[in-house]
Amino acid sequence: MISRRNFLSGLSTLPVTMYPVLAAAQTSSALTMPPLLDATKTGRFQLTAQRGTTAFVDAGTSETWGFNQSYLGPTLRIAAGKTTAAEVQNTLNEPISVHWHGLMVPGDADGGPHQTIAQGETWTPDLAITQPASTAWYHSHVHGSTARQVQNGLAGVLQIDDGRDEERGLPNTYGVDDLTLVLQDRRFDRRGRIDYDLSMPDQMMGFLGDTMVINGQVGRTAVVPRGIVRLRLVNGSNARIYPLSLSDGREMHLIATDNGYLDRPIVLTNLTIAPGERYEVLIDLTDGSDIALVSAPNPNQMMGGMMGIGGTETSFVVLPFSVDSTLPTAKDRMPNDIGGSRPQGDGSGIPERSVTLDMQMGMGMMMRRASNRFSINGDAFDMDTINFEIPRGTVERWKITADMMMHPFHVHGVSFQVLSQGGRSPTAQNTGWKDTVLVDGNAELLVRFDQDASNETPFMYHCHILEHEDGGMMGQFTVG
Ligand SMILES: [Cu+2]
Protein backbone atom coordinates (compact mmCIF):
# COMPACT_ATOMS: atom_id res chain seq x y z
CA MET A 1 0.00 0.00 0.00
CA ILE A 2 1.31 3.41 -0.90
CA SER A 3 1.31 5.68 2.11
CA ARG A 4 -1.35 8.30 1.85
CA ARG A 5 1.15 10.64 3.43
CA ASN A 6 3.06 10.67 0.17
CA PHE A 7 0.13 11.82 -1.90
CA LEU A 8 0.66 15.39 -0.80
CA SER A 9 4.41 15.38 -0.50
CA GLY A 10 5.18 15.63 -4.19
CA LEU A 11 6.94 12.23 -4.19
CA SER A 12 4.15 10.76 -6.22
CA THR A 13 3.59 12.25 -9.65
CA LEU A 14 0.95 9.84 -10.90
CA PRO A 15 -2.09 11.43 -12.49
CA VAL A 16 -5.00 11.25 -10.15
CA THR A 17 -6.89 8.50 -11.96
CA MET A 18 -3.94 6.18 -11.45
CA TYR A 19 -3.96 6.26 -7.69
CA PRO A 20 -4.42 2.78 -6.26
CA VAL A 21 -7.90 3.45 -4.98
CA LEU A 22 -8.86 -0.22 -4.91
CA ALA A 23 -5.71 -1.31 -3.17
CA ALA A 24 -6.23 1.34 -0.57
CA ALA A 25 -9.84 0.29 -0.10
CA GLN A 26 -8.84 -3.31 0.48
CA THR A 27 -6.13 -2.61 3.00
CA SER A 28 -7.26 0.40 5.00
CA SER A 29 -9.86 0.33 7.71
CA ALA A 30 -13.25 1.99 7.64
CA LEU A 31 -13.72 5.69 8.27
CA THR A 32 -15.85 6.45 11.29
CA MET A 33 -18.07 9.45 11.97
CA PRO A 34 -17.78 11.79 14.93
CA PRO A 35 -20.23 10.59 17.63
CA LEU A 36 -23.73 12.00 17.05
CA LEU A 37 -25.02 14.11 19.92
CA ASP A 38 -28.71 14.47 19.14
CA ALA A 39 -30.19 17.41 21.06
CA THR A 40 -33.38 17.70 18.99
CA LYS A 41 -35.49 15.99 21.68
CA THR A 42 -33.68 17.10 24.82
CA GLY A 43 -33.18 20.72 23.75
CA ARG A 44 -29.77 20.81 25.40
CA PHE A 45 -26.21 19.64 24.94
CA GLN A 46 -22.96 19.76 26.88
CA LEU A 47 -19.43 20.12 25.51
CA THR A 48 -16.23 19.81 27.51
CA ALA A 49 -13.02 21.09 25.94
CA GLN A 50 -10.39 18.61 27.02
CA ARG A 51 -6.89 17.32 26.44
CA GLY A 52 -6.21 13.87 25.00
CA THR A 53 -3.96 11.81 22.78
CA THR A 54 -4.67 10.69 19.23
CA ALA A 55 -2.92 8.09 17.06
CA PHE A 56 -3.17 9.62 13.58
CA VAL A 57 -0.26 7.72 12.04
CA ASP A 58 1.70 4.56 12.86
CA ALA A 59 4.72 6.51 14.11
CA GLY A 60 3.13 7.38 17.45
CA THR A 61 0.51 9.42 19.24
CA SER A 62 0.00 13.17 19.39
CA GLU A 63 -1.27 15.34 22.18
CA THR A 64 -4.55 16.77 20.90
CA TRP A 65 -7.56 18.75 22.06
CA GLY A 66 -11.22 17.96 21.54
CA PHE A 67 -14.73 18.37 22.87
CA ASN A 68 -15.93 15.36 24.91
CA GLN A 69 -13.15 13.30 23.26
CA SER A 70 -9.49 13.51 22.35
CA TYR A 71 -9.75 15.25 18.95
CA LEU A 72 -12.58 17.30 17.38
CA GLY A 73 -16.04 17.15 18.92
CA PRO A 74 -19.32 15.32 18.46
CA THR A 75 -21.71 16.14 15.62
CA LEU A 76 -24.32 18.26 17.36
CA ARG A 77 -27.83 17.90 15.97
CA ILE A 78 -30.19 20.66 17.07
CA ALA A 79 -33.80 21.34 16.09
CA ALA A 80 -34.84 24.04 13.63
CA GLY A 81 -37.43 26.41 15.08
CA LYS A 82 -36.49 25.74 18.70
CA THR A 83 -34.10 27.03 21.33
CA THR A 84 -31.31 24.74 22.44
CA ALA A 85 -29.47 25.28 25.73
CA ALA A 86 -25.74 24.90 25.20
CA GLU A 87 -23.20 24.33 27.95
CA VAL A 88 -19.50 24.55 27.20
CA GLN A 89 -16.93 23.76 29.88
CA ASN A 90 -13.24 24.50 29.45
CA THR A 91 -10.82 22.12 31.19
CA LEU A 92 -7.81 23.29 29.14
CA ASN A 93 -5.18 25.52 30.70
CA GLU A 94 -5.83 28.50 28.44
CA PRO A 95 -8.90 30.48 27.38
CA ILE A 96 -10.97 29.17 24.48
CA SER A 97 -14.20 30.27 22.83
CA VAL A 98 -16.76 28.38 20.78
CA HIS A 99 -18.10 30.18 17.72
CA TRP A 100 -21.18 28.62 16.12
CA HIS A 101 -20.14 29.16 12.51
CA GLY A 102 -23.28 29.37 10.39
CA LEU A 103 -25.79 30.01 13.17
CA MET A 104 -27.82 33.21 12.95
CA VAL A 105 -27.85 34.01 16.65
CA PRO A 106 -27.27 37.35 18.44
CA GLY A 107 -23.73 38.48 19.22
CA ASP A 108 -24.04 37.50 22.89
CA ALA A 109 -24.48 33.85 21.85
CA ASP A 110 -22.07 33.88 18.88
CA GLY A 111 -18.91 32.74 20.69
CA GLY A 112 -16.50 35.18 19.08
CA PRO A 113 -13.21 36.56 20.47
CA HIS A 114 -14.98 38.63 23.17
CA GLN A 115 -16.57 35.55 24.72
CA THR A 116 -13.63 33.62 25.99
CA ILE A 117 -14.13 30.81 28.47
CA ALA A 118 -11.32 30.75 31.02
CA GLN A 119 -9.82 27.55 32.39
CA GLY A 120 -12.37 25.83 34.63
CA GLU A 121 -15.23 28.05 33.52
CA THR A 122 -18.49 27.17 31.80
CA TRP A 123 -20.38 29.19 29.17
CA THR A 124 -24.12 28.62 28.77
CA PRO A 125 -25.60 30.42 25.73
CA ASP A 126 -29.12 29.74 24.46
CA LEU A 127 -29.19 29.03 20.74
CA ALA A 128 -32.54 30.20 19.32
CA ILE A 129 -32.74 28.70 15.84
CA THR A 130 -34.93 30.60 13.38
CA GLN A 131 -33.06 29.64 10.21
CA PRO A 132 -33.60 26.69 7.83
CA ALA A 133 -32.00 23.26 8.18
CA SER A 134 -28.31 23.25 7.28
CA THR A 135 -24.87 21.94 8.12
CA ALA A 136 -22.92 24.39 10.29
CA TRP A 137 -19.88 23.87 12.49
CA TYR A 138 -18.29 25.12 15.66
CA HIS A 139 -14.70 26.03 16.48
CA SER A 140 -12.58 28.09 18.82
CA HIS A 141 -12.19 31.78 17.95
CA VAL A 142 -9.79 33.40 20.45
CA HIS A 143 -7.99 36.23 18.71
CA GLY A 144 -4.38 35.27 18.05
CA SER A 145 -4.94 31.63 19.08
CA THR A 146 -7.63 30.43 16.68
CA ALA A 147 -5.26 28.78 14.20
CA ARG A 148 -3.36 26.81 16.86
CA GLN A 149 -6.47 25.85 18.81
CA VAL A 150 -8.29 24.58 15.70
CA GLN A 151 -5.10 22.80 14.58
CA ASN A 152 -5.09 21.04 17.97
CA GLY A 153 -8.67 19.86 17.41
CA LEU A 154 -11.12 22.40 18.81
CA ALA A 155 -13.80 22.05 16.11
CA GLY A 156 -16.89 20.01 15.35
CA VAL A 157 -19.93 19.79 13.09
CA LEU A 158 -23.38 21.13 13.92
CA GLN A 159 -26.53 20.11 12.06
CA ILE A 160 -29.71 22.14 12.16
CA ASP A 161 -32.36 19.50 11.60
CA ASP A 162 -36.04 19.98 10.71
CA GLY A 163 -36.92 16.26 10.54
CA ARG A 164 -38.02 16.53 6.91
CA ASP A 165 -35.15 14.89 5.03
CA GLU A 166 -37.16 11.71 4.40
CA GLU A 167 -39.89 13.64 2.58
CA ARG A 168 -37.20 15.47 0.62
CA GLY A 169 -35.95 12.08 -0.55
CA LEU A 170 -32.52 12.64 0.96
CA PRO A 171 -30.27 10.00 2.51
CA ASN A 172 -30.44 10.61 6.25
CA THR A 173 -29.00 7.65 8.17
CA TYR A 174 -26.05 9.10 10.06
CA GLY A 175 -22.77 7.49 9.13
CA VAL A 176 -24.36 5.03 6.70
CA ASP A 177 -25.66 6.97 3.70
CA ASP A 178 -25.36 10.42 5.31
CA LEU A 179 -21.67 11.07 5.89
CA THR A 180 -20.20 13.95 7.87
CA LEU A 181 -16.71 14.68 6.53
CA VAL A 182 -14.41 17.18 8.23
CA LEU A 183 -11.56 17.85 5.80
CA GLN A 184 -8.26 18.84 7.39
CA ASP A 185 -4.63 18.70 6.38
CA ARG A 186 -1.90 18.19 8.92
CA ARG A 187 1.82 17.51 9.22
CA PHE A 188 3.20 14.96 11.64
CA ASP A 189 6.72 14.66 13.01
CA ARG A 190 8.70 11.41 13.19
CA ARG A 191 6.98 10.49 16.44
CA GLY A 192 3.50 11.03 15.03
CA ARG A 193 2.87 14.33 16.76
CA ILE A 194 1.02 17.20 15.06
CA ASP A 195 3.71 19.51 13.66
CA TYR A 196 2.54 23.11 13.64
CA ASP A 197 5.85 24.92 13.30
CA LEU A 198 5.14 27.74 10.88
CA SER A 199 7.73 28.68 8.28
CA MET A 200 7.65 32.14 6.74
CA PRO A 201 5.65 30.85 3.72
CA ASP A 202 3.21 29.21 6.18
CA GLN A 203 2.77 32.54 7.89
CA MET A 204 2.12 34.29 4.60
CA MET A 205 0.04 31.67 2.80
CA GLY A 206 -1.50 29.97 5.80
CA PHE A 207 -0.62 26.48 7.01
CA LEU A 208 -0.65 23.67 4.45
CA GLY A 209 -0.21 20.08 5.61
CA ASP A 210 1.14 17.07 3.72
CA THR A 211 -1.29 14.51 5.12
CA MET A 212 -5.04 14.29 4.54
CA VAL A 213 -7.06 13.86 7.73
CA ILE A 214 -10.81 13.16 7.65
CA ASN A 215 -12.74 13.26 10.94
CA GLY A 216 -9.38 13.02 12.68
CA GLN A 217 -8.41 9.85 10.80
CA VAL A 218 -5.67 9.16 8.25
CA GLY A 219 -5.76 6.59 5.44
CA ARG A 220 -9.32 5.39 5.96
CA THR A 221 -11.94 4.29 3.42
CA ALA A 222 -15.63 5.18 3.61
CA VAL A 223 -17.66 1.95 3.42
CA VAL A 224 -21.02 2.84 1.91
CA PRO A 225 -24.19 1.15 0.61
CA ARG A 226 -24.83 0.61 -3.09
CA GLY A 227 -27.09 3.61 -3.58
CA ILE A 228 -27.25 7.38 -3.26
CA VAL A 229 -24.78 8.64 -0.66
CA ARG A 230 -24.83 12.09 0.91
CA LEU A 231 -21.60 13.87 1.80
CA ARG A 232 -21.72 16.78 4.22
CA LEU A 233 -18.38 18.39 3.42
CA VAL A 234 -16.89 20.73 6.01
CA ASN A 235 -13.55 22.39 5.31
CA GLY A 236 -12.00 22.55 8.77
CA SER A 237 -8.48 23.15 7.45
CA ASN A 238 -6.54 26.22 8.50
CA ALA A 239 -5.78 27.35 4.94
CA ARG A 240 -6.13 24.61 2.34
CA ILE A 241 -8.62 25.05 -0.50
CA TYR A 242 -9.76 21.74 -2.02
CA PRO A 243 -10.83 21.71 -5.71
CA LEU A 244 -12.80 18.46 -5.40
CA SER A 245 -13.99 15.95 -7.97
CA LEU A 246 -14.70 12.23 -8.17
CA SER A 247 -11.91 9.97 -9.45
CA ASP A 248 -13.85 8.74 -12.49
CA GLY A 249 -15.22 12.18 -13.33
CA ARG A 250 -18.79 11.32 -12.37
CA GLU A 251 -21.23 13.98 -11.29
CA MET A 252 -21.87 15.35 -7.84
CA HIS A 253 -25.37 16.68 -7.11
CA LEU A 254 -25.06 19.77 -4.93
CA ILE A 255 -28.06 19.95 -2.58
CA ALA A 256 -27.00 22.47 0.06
CA THR A 257 -24.59 25.35 0.56
CA ASP A 258 -23.46 26.92 3.87
CA ASN A 259 -26.88 27.97 5.13
CA GLY A 260 -29.27 25.43 3.74
CA TYR A 261 -30.88 23.49 0.93
CA LEU A 262 -31.09 24.62 -2.66
CA ASP A 263 -34.43 24.56 -4.49
CA ARG A 264 -33.14 21.86 -6.84
CA PRO A 265 -29.85 19.96 -7.02
CA ILE A 266 -27.07 21.50 -9.13
CA VAL A 267 -25.08 18.95 -11.11
CA LEU A 268 -21.32 19.53 -10.94
CA THR A 269 -18.16 17.62 -11.73
CA ASN A 270 -15.95 20.05 -9.80
CA LEU A 271 -16.63 21.64 -6.44
CA THR A 272 -14.14 23.91 -4.69
CA ILE A 273 -14.38 24.11 -0.90
CA ALA A 274 -12.43 26.78 0.97
CA PRO A 275 -11.76 26.96 4.71
CA GLY A 276 -14.97 27.58 6.66
CA GLU A 277 -17.31 26.56 3.84
CA ARG A 278 -19.80 23.68 3.90
CA TYR A 279 -21.33 21.95 0.91
CA GLU A 280 -23.63 18.94 0.78
CA VAL A 281 -23.54 16.71 -2.28
CA LEU A 282 -25.20 13.45 -3.30
CA ILE A 283 -23.17 10.89 -5.22
CA ASP A 284 -24.68 7.98 -7.13
CA LEU A 285 -23.02 4.67 -6.28
CA THR A 286 -25.86 2.45 -7.54
CA ASP A 287 -23.43 0.89 -10.05
CA GLY A 288 -21.34 -0.46 -7.17
CA SER A 289 -18.10 1.16 -8.38
CA ASP A 290 -15.36 1.89 -5.87
CA ILE A 291 -14.39 5.47 -6.57
CA ALA A 292 -12.67 8.20 -4.60
CA LEU A 293 -13.12 11.83 -3.73
CA VAL A 294 -9.99 13.54 -5.03
CA SER A 295 -8.57 17.04 -4.81
CA ALA A 296 -6.46 19.11 -7.16
CA PRO A 297 -3.56 20.98 -5.52
CA ASN A 298 -4.23 24.00 -3.37
CA PRO A 299 -4.93 26.74 -5.94
CA ASN A 300 -3.76 29.56 -3.72
CA GLN A 301 -0.46 30.84 -5.00
CA MET A 302 0.80 34.24 -4.14
CA MET A 303 1.36 36.47 -7.18
CA GLY A 304 0.60 33.59 -9.54
CA GLY A 305 3.40 31.53 -8.02
CA MET A 306 6.06 34.19 -8.64
CA MET A 307 7.08 34.02 -5.00
CA GLY A 308 8.03 30.40 -5.55
CA ILE A 309 5.48 29.29 -2.97
CA GLY A 310 3.17 26.43 -3.82
CA GLY A 311 2.87 24.86 -7.24
CA THR A 312 4.84 21.70 -6.46
CA GLU A 313 1.88 19.61 -5.34
CA THR A 314 0.08 16.94 -7.28
CA SER A 315 -3.54 15.90 -7.03
CA PHE A 316 -4.33 13.52 -4.18
CA VAL A 317 -6.98 11.24 -2.80
CA VAL A 318 -9.17 12.84 -0.15
CA LEU A 319 -11.30 9.78 0.60
CA PRO A 320 -11.78 6.43 -1.17
CA PHE A 321 -15.23 4.83 -1.14
CA SER A 322 -15.83 1.10 -0.93
CA VAL A 323 -19.33 -0.06 -1.83
CA ASP A 324 -20.64 -2.83 0.43
CA SER A 325 -23.65 -4.39 -1.28
CA THR A 326 -24.74 -6.08 1.94
CA LEU A 327 -25.58 -2.69 3.47
CA PRO A 328 -29.24 -1.74 3.00
CA THR A 329 -29.83 0.87 0.30
CA ALA A 330 -32.25 3.53 1.50
CA LYS A 331 -32.21 5.74 -1.61
CA ASP A 332 -31.52 4.64 -5.16
CA ARG A 333 -32.40 7.72 -7.17
CA MET A 334 -31.62 11.39 -7.07
CA PRO A 335 -34.33 13.77 -5.86
CA ASN A 336 -35.45 16.49 -8.29
CA ASP A 337 -36.99 19.02 -5.96
CA ILE A 338 -35.62 19.46 -2.46
CA GLY A 339 -37.70 22.49 -1.56
CA GLY A 340 -34.97 24.84 -0.36
CA SER A 341 -34.30 28.26 -1.77
CA ARG A 342 -31.78 30.45 -3.48
CA PRO A 343 -31.41 34.15 -2.74
CA GLN A 344 -32.95 36.29 -5.47
CA GLY A 345 -32.01 39.77 -4.31
CA ASP A 346 -31.33 42.74 -6.56
CA GLY A 347 -28.28 44.73 -5.51
CA SER A 348 -29.18 47.90 -7.41
CA GLY A 349 -29.68 51.00 -5.28
CA ILE A 350 -28.39 49.26 -2.16
CA PRO A 351 -25.82 51.17 -0.06
CA GLU A 352 -22.28 49.93 -0.62
CA ARG A 353 -19.47 49.17 1.77
CA SER A 354 -15.90 48.38 0.68
CA VAL A 355 -13.93 45.69 2.48
CA THR A 356 -10.34 45.26 1.30
CA LEU A 357 -8.35 42.30 2.60
CA ASP A 358 -4.74 43.46 2.75
CA MET A 359 -1.41 41.63 2.93
CA GLN A 360 2.08 42.99 3.34
CA MET A 361 4.61 41.74 0.82
CA GLY A 362 7.71 39.69 1.65
CA MET A 363 10.14 41.75 3.72
CA GLY A 364 7.47 44.31 4.51
CA MET A 365 5.50 41.56 6.16
CA MET A 366 8.47 40.04 7.97
CA MET A 367 9.26 43.41 9.55
CA ARG A 368 5.83 43.59 11.12
CA ARG A 369 4.73 42.03 14.35
CA ALA A 370 2.80 38.76 13.98
CA SER A 371 -0.39 40.46 15.19
CA ASN A 372 -0.59 43.04 12.39
CA ARG A 373 0.87 41.47 9.29
CA PHE A 374 -2.59 41.42 7.80
CA SER A 375 -5.39 43.94 7.84
CA ILE A 376 -8.75 44.99 6.43
CA ASN A 377 -9.18 48.44 4.90
CA GLY A 378 -5.67 49.21 6.13
CA ASP A 379 -6.25 48.40 9.79
CA ALA A 380 -5.19 45.25 11.61
CA PHE A 381 -7.86 43.84 13.94
CA ASP A 382 -8.13 45.61 17.28
CA MET A 383 -10.31 44.12 20.03
CA ASP A 384 -11.15 47.65 21.23
CA THR A 385 -12.18 49.15 17.88
CA ILE A 386 -15.67 48.72 16.40
CA ASN A 387 -15.17 49.08 12.65
CA PHE A 388 -18.81 49.35 11.51
CA GLU A 389 -22.11 50.14 13.26
CA ILE A 390 -25.06 48.79 11.31
CA PRO A 391 -28.76 49.38 12.10
CA ARG A 392 -30.74 46.15 12.47
CA GLY A 393 -32.79 45.26 9.40
CA THR A 394 -30.38 47.05 7.06
CA VAL A 395 -29.41 45.54 3.70
CA GLU A 396 -25.94 46.38 2.40
CA ARG A 397 -23.91 45.55 -0.67
CA TRP A 398 -20.41 44.58 0.44
CA LYS A 399 -17.65 44.91 -2.16
CA ILE A 400 -14.83 42.61 -1.10
CA THR A 401 -11.36 42.96 -2.61
CA ALA A 402 -8.76 40.25 -2.03
CA ASP A 403 -5.10 41.26 -2.09
CA MET A 404 -2.25 39.01 -3.34
CA MET A 405 -4.08 35.68 -3.13
CA MET A 406 -7.53 34.17 -2.69
CA HIS A 407 -9.11 34.73 0.71
CA PRO A 408 -12.20 32.91 2.07
CA PHE A 409 -14.30 35.71 3.56
CA HIS A 410 -16.71 34.97 6.43
CA VAL A 411 -19.25 37.21 8.16
CA HIS A 412 -20.76 36.31 11.54
CA GLY A 413 -24.49 36.48 12.24
CA VAL A 414 -25.65 36.71 8.63
CA SER A 415 -26.43 34.69 5.54
CA PHE A 416 -25.65 36.44 2.28
CA GLN A 417 -26.18 36.28 -1.46
CA VAL A 418 -23.14 36.34 -3.73
CA LEU A 419 -24.05 38.97 -6.34
CA SER A 420 -20.87 38.71 -8.39
CA GLN A 421 -17.38 37.25 -8.44
CA GLY A 422 -14.66 38.95 -10.48
CA GLY A 423 -17.31 41.14 -12.08
CA ARG A 424 -19.26 38.15 -13.35
CA SER A 425 -22.26 36.18 -12.15
CA PRO A 426 -21.43 33.86 -9.26
CA THR A 427 -20.36 30.31 -10.05
CA ALA A 428 -23.15 27.71 -9.74
CA GLN A 429 -21.85 26.49 -6.37
CA ASN A 430 -22.18 30.03 -4.97
CA THR A 431 -25.82 30.59 -5.93
CA GLY A 432 -27.15 29.28 -2.60
CA TRP A 433 -27.21 30.96 0.82
CA LYS A 434 -23.67 31.51 2.07
CA ASP A 435 -21.80 32.79 5.11
CA THR A 436 -18.31 32.22 3.69
CA VAL A 437 -17.15 32.81 0.13
CA LEU A 438 -13.79 32.39 -1.56
CA VAL A 439 -12.81 35.78 -2.96
CA ASP A 440 -10.49 35.66 -5.97
CA GLY A 441 -9.85 39.29 -6.89
CA ASN A 442 -13.21 40.65 -5.86
CA ALA A 443 -16.75 39.71 -4.98
CA GLU A 444 -19.97 41.54 -4.18
CA LEU A 445 -22.28 40.31 -1.45
CA LEU A 446 -25.85 41.28 -0.61
CA VAL A 447 -26.16 41.09 3.15
CA ARG A 448 -29.10 41.67 5.51
CA PHE A 449 -28.34 42.26 9.19
CA ASP A 450 -31.08 40.84 11.40
CA GLN A 451 -29.28 39.71 14.56
CA ASP A 452 -28.32 42.12 17.34
CA ALA A 453 -24.70 42.49 18.34
CA SER A 454 -23.56 45.00 20.98
CA ASN A 455 -20.26 46.78 21.59
CA GLU A 456 -19.43 44.13 24.17
CA THR A 457 -20.12 41.19 21.84
CA PRO A 458 -19.82 42.44 18.24
CA PHE A 459 -19.86 40.24 15.15
CA MET A 460 -16.67 39.49 13.22
CA TYR A 461 -15.91 39.62 9.51
CA HIS A 462 -12.64 38.02 8.52
CA CYS A 463 -10.53 35.88 6.28
CA HIS A 464 -11.00 32.21 7.20
CA ILE A 465 -7.36 31.38 6.50
CA LEU A 466 -6.77 31.13 10.22
CA GLU A 467 -3.18 32.42 10.13
CA HIS A 468 -4.46 35.52 8.32
CA GLU A 469 -7.31 35.98 10.79
CA ASP A 470 -4.96 35.69 13.79
CA GLY A 471 -2.55 38.06 12.02
CA GLY A 472 -5.13 40.84 11.86
CA MET A 473 -7.26 40.21 8.74
CA MET A 474 -10.44 40.68 10.74
CA GLY A 475 -12.84 43.44 11.72
CA GLN A 476 -15.90 43.72 13.93
CA PHE A 477 -19.30 45.39 13.76
CA THR A 478 -22.35 46.02 15.87
CA VAL A 479 -25.98 45.52 14.82
CA GLY A 480 -28.80 47.21 16.64
CU1 LIG B 1 -6.67 35.46 3.89
Mind explaining what this structure looks like?
With 480 residues, the protein is mostly beta strands. The protein has three domains: 4-27 and 167-323, Cupredoxins -  blue copper proteins (Immunoglobulin-like), CATH 2.60.40.420; 36-164, Cupredoxins -  blue copper proteins (Immunoglobulin-like, Sandwich), CATH 2.60.40; 352-479, Sandwich (Immunoglobulin-like). It contains six helices and 31 strands. The strands form six sheets. The chain has a six-stranded mixed sheet with strand order 12-11-14-19-16-17, with no helix packed on it. The protein has a five-stranded mixed sheet with strand order 1-4-10-9-6, with no helix packed on it. Strands 2, 3, 5, 7 and 8 form a five-stranded mixed sheet that branches. A hairpin with a 2-residue loop joins β2 (44-57) and β3 (60-67). The longest helix has 7 residues, at 21-27. It is globular and about 60 Å long. Residues 1-26 have low confidence and may be disordered.
